[in-house]
Design a protein that fits this description.
Blueprint (H helix, E strand, L loop, with lengths): L1 E8 L4 E7 L4 H7 L17 E6 L2 E2 L10 H5 L2 E3 L4 E2 L3 E5 L12 E13 L2 E8 L12 E5 L6 E5 L8 E7 L5 H9 L5 E8 L11 E6 L4 H13 L5 E7 L8 H10 L3 E7 L27 E6 L1 H14 L5 E6 L7
Parallel strand pairs: 1-7, 14-15, 14-17, 15-16, 17-18
Antiparallel strand pairs: 1-2, 3-5, 3-7, 4-6, 8-9, 8-13, 9-12, 10-11, 10-13
The structure holds flavin-adenine dinucleotide and FE2/S2 (inorganic) cluster.
Flavin-adenine dinucleotide binds next to strand 11, strand 12 and helix 3.
C-alpha cells in the first residue's frame, strides 16, 4: 500500500511522492530524487523537521533534542523517522531549488473555451500525462500564453477529470491571455502548465469553514468544493461570493449543485454595482453574518483581487475576530508584460 505525500516547499512549489506504508518518508523522497533537508537520518539532530499540514502518520523514535513534546503535539514530524498512514501534506522549510527539485512542466492542449459572460471565460486543458499532474485543491499553475513567450498564473477551478483540468478567467480588455482566450484560441492549441504552486489549498476540515471569493477568485473554491463533495464533511461550510457587476456572477449552477450535494454547504452572492437588481448589494464584508464567524472557531479561506483581501483582513481586525486560521490568495496582476 502506498500513500501520496505532497511536499510543499518554502517557495510555493509542490511536488508529490508515493511512500509505501512501511517506508520512511525521507527514504521515499530521496528514492524519487527530492533532496529534502537531512543530516543524521537517526532522529537525533532535527534537521529534517517539518510541519505536517494534514494526514495521519506515525512519528517513529527520536531524541527530545531533535523534536520536543510540544512540537510533536503541534504536528511537527521528523521525515527521517516518520511513516505515513494516509495521504499527507508536508511543509518543507527549504526552497525547492535547494532540494534540487525542478518545477514540473506539463504539456497540454486547449480543449474548450467557454465565454461564461462578457467578463468571464472558462477554459479547459487536456493534459497529455494527467497522471503526472497532481495538485492540492486551491493551488495554481503557470499557463503559457500560446504564440508568446509569456505565462499567466491561474488557479485550477476543478480537480483533474477525464484527462482535463479547468480554469476560470476574468476577461481583461487588452490583456495578453484575455485576448488570446477571447479572440484567438482554437481547440488543439498547445499549452504548457508549470507547477503546481502555492500554499493556498484546503487543509483537513476540523472546524467550520468560511470561504470568501471575489470575482474569478471563485476558481480555487470550485476545486475545493469538488474535493469536499468527494470526501464529505461534518462541518458547516459557508461561502460568500462577491462580484463587481451582474455579468461577473458566473458558475452559480455549479454552486447550486454543490449546495445540493454537500450537506452543510451554503452560499450567498453579493454584487457591488449599486445599479444591480441583485438582492444583496455591496461588498462581501457587508454580508458577512456574525454566525459564519463562529466566534473565531473558523478556518477562513479568501481569494480575490488584492484590495478585497486587505478589506476583509481589516474588517476582521475591526470586529476583533481572530479566526483559527486565515488563508488567502491575491490575484496580483502579472509582472512580465
Ligand atoms: C497566484 C495567482 C493566481 C491567479 N489565478 C487567477 C484565476 O484563477 N483567474 C483569473 O482570472 N486570474 C487569476 N490570476 C491573475 C492572472 O494571473 C492574470 O494576471 C490575469 O488573468 C490578467 O492576465 P492577462 O494576460 O489577460 O492581462 P495582462 O496582459 O497581464 O494585463 C493587461 C492589463 O490589465 C491590468 N490587469 C491585470 N490584471 C488585472 C486585474 N485583476 N484587474 C485590473 N487590471 C488588471 C494589467 O496591469 C495590465 O495593464 C491569478 C494571479 C495570481 C498571482
Ligand atoms: S535527519 Fe536528523 S533528525 Fe532527521
Amino acid at each position: 500500500m502506498t500513500h501520496r505525500i505532497a511536499l510543499n516547499f518554502e517557495d510555493g512549489v509542490t511536488r508529490f511522492i508515493e511512500a509505501r506504508a512501511d517506508e520512511l518518508v525521507a527514504d521515499a523522497a530521496y528514492r524519487l530524487g527530492f533532496n529534502i533537508p537531512m543530516d543524521c537520518r537517526d532522529g537525533a539532530c532535527g534537521t529534517c523537521k517539518c510541519h505536517c499540514e494534514s494526514g495521519d502518520y506515525s512519528l517513529g523514535s527520536y531524541l527530545d533534542d531533535a523534536m520536543t513534546e510540544d512540537e510533536a503535539q503541534e504536528r511537527y514530524v521528523l521525515t527521517c523517522q516518520m511513516k505515513a498512514k494516509s495521504d499527507c501534506v508536508l511543509s518543507i522549510p527549504a526552497a525547492s531549488s535547494v532540494c534540487k527539485v525542478k518545477v514540473a512542466v506539463h504539456a497540454g492542449e486547449l480543449a474548450q473555451v467557454r465565454q461564461l459572460s462578457p467578463s468571464s471565460i472558462g477554459f479547459s486543458v487536456k493534459v497529455a500525462e494527467i497522471g503526472q499532474l497532481s495538485y492540492l485543491p486551491g493551488q495554481y499553475v503557470n499557463v503559457s500564453v500560446p504564440g508568446t513567450t509569456q505565462a499567466r498564473s491561474y488557479s485550477f477551478s476543478s480537480m483533474p477529470r477525464d484527462g482535463m483540468v479547468e480554469f476560470l478567467v476574468r476577461n481583461i480588455p487588452g490583456g495578453l491571455m484575455s485576448t488570446y482566450l477571447s479572440e484567438l484560441a482554437k481547440p488543439g492549441d498547445a499549452l504548457s502548465l508549470t507547477g503546481p504552486v502555492g500554499s493556498f489549498y484546503l487543509r483537513d476540515v476540523t472546524r467550520p469553514l468560511l470561504l470568501l471569493a471575489g470575482g474569478t477568485g471563485l476558481a480555487p473554491f470550485l476545486a475545493m468544493l469538488q474535493e469536499l463533495q468527494r470526501k464529505g464533511t461534518a462541518e458547516p461550510v459557508h461561502m460568500i461570493y462577491g462580484v463587481t457587476s451582474d455579468a461577473d456572477l458566473v458558475e452559480v449552477e455549479r454552486l447550486d449543485a454543490f449546495a445540493a450535494a454537500i450537506p452543510g454547504f451554503t452560499y450567498a452572492t453579493v454584487v457591488a454595482d449599486p445599479n444591480s437588481a441583485h438582492g444583496r448589494k455591496g461588498y462581501v464584508t457587508h454580508h458577512l453574518p456574525e454566525a459564519a464567524l463562529h466566534g473565531g472557531n473558523v478556518d477562513i479561506y479568501l481569494c480575490g483581487p488584492p484590495p478585497m483581501v486587505d478589506a476583509v483582513r481589516g474588517h476582521l481586525a475591526d470586529k476583533g475576530v481572530k479566526p483559527a486560521s486565515f488563508h488567502f490568495e491575491k490575484f496580483n496582476p502579472s509582472e512580465n508584460k
